[in-house]
Design goal:
The chain has two domains: about 25-215 and about 320-345, Citrate Synthase, domain 1; about 220-315, Cytochrome p450-Terp, domain 2 (Orthogonal Bundle), CATH 1.10.230.10. It contains 16 helices and three strands. The protein has helices at about 30-40, 40-50, 55-70, 75-80, 90-100, 110-135, 150-160, 165-180, 185-195, 200-210, 220-230, 235-245, 265-280, 285-300, 305-315, 325-345, and strands spanning about 20, 25, 30. The chain binds acetyl coenzyme *A (ACO) and oxaloacetate ion. Pathway: Carbohydrate metabolism; tricarboxylic acid cycle.
Amino acid sequence: MTATKGLEGIVATTSSISSIVDGVLTYRGYDIDDLASNACFEEVAYLLWFGKLPNRIELDNLKQKLSEYAPIPDALISQIKLYPKKQNTMAALRSAISALALYDENAEDDSQEANEIKAVKLQAQLPTIVAAIARIREGNEPVAPKQGVSIAENFLYMLTGEEPSETSVKALDQALVLHADHELNASTFAGRVTVATLSDIYSGVTSAIGALKGPLHGGANEAVMKMLSEIGSVDKLESYIQDKLDNREKIMGFGHRVYKNGDPRAKHLQKMSLELGEQKGNTDLYEMSVQIEELITSQKGLKPNVDFYSASVYTQLGINRELFTPIFAISRVSGWTAHILEQLSDNRIIRPRAEYTGPTNQKYIPIERR
Ligand SMILES: CC(=O)SCCNC(=O)CCNC(=O)[C@H](O)C(C)(C)COP(=O)(O)OP(=O)(O)OC[C@H]1O[C@@H](n2cnc3c(N)ncnc32)[C@H](O)[C@@H]1OP(=O)(O)O
Ligand SMILES: O=C([O-])CC(=O)C(=O)O
């Protein structure tokens, strides 16, 4: 038995949800470029869950369900108010989603029908929870979700209590489409491993949130913004990046386990970052990002991943850094739950082996002789 570090190149399951072949990302066979330009996030969530694009009636029904399920229990809001305000937002989200299960009387119903409803509920409630966490951290009361609007619009509205601009809603909606699923990434794998023990869907999503939080995965978008803030201005950029490279530190938002010639989602976020900057009359963040990309690509041959330009996009939407990874979760919960449903439809416990490298032939020594 020989271990492969990080399971690189190991095919661990079959899946018909999303694929990455020769650098092209598809959801259920639809190219991400096509979906990013044409589909709204709710259509994409339907596609991931049910395997086909919805017709008008199916989409309207889904949107209605998402609106209906969006409010969260008052008891959960009270609990969130007790969380320490300065702790990591993903840690708060992880705790809140775990607690949410306690308020769902069907949490332990493992029928496919019940799990499909729970997938839609989780998708509907996760944005409300993130917005509530954000408001409570700032000392504000949560804003109740609006009925009959998209997830992107509702989330921006719940953050501030004000109507978001059409441009902001469109940009966030597109970002949600781009982040919705990504084959067997670490958080999706974590979710699948959890439910493969026949644990419940809330446990699967809680595991996935824990995995997404890390800076080598979804947490990289916050780390990118931290880097941009530390750099501060274009004139300091080159020495900052050079120092990091000289110290063999990783530059967040670059590199990818699967894409070696670039992440197909990054160009959409880059374009969005420029457009938002131009609309605001300040493209500084975009310019800095482009220069970092030029440096890293020329020196290390690494390309930006989905997390790199999303940092400047969210900042230009007026969103605080600590909400970037939770926004990733707002989108990715569609993919996580689609994978969980797929795992449960043809389940076998996931239990690989480890190559043992520890000592052998040890003999027990009584404690007084150690
Ligand atoms: C949504 C997402 O999860 S996208 C990924 C988000 N994560 C990041 O942006 C964090 C920065 N990037 C990384 O840490 C990595 O590229 C990962 C985690 C994405 C992929 O990791 P792996 O597939 O294990 O790549 P690996 O670490 O083997 O990289 C190969 C080489 O490139 C280097 N490298 C990879 N990424 C970077 C980076 N961002 N900055 C500097 N060097 C890097 C590695 O140090 C390694 O060099 P070496 O061969 O001299 O040791
Ligand atoms: O696939 C991965 O390893 C990480 C990633 O890009 C994602 O989850 O979107």
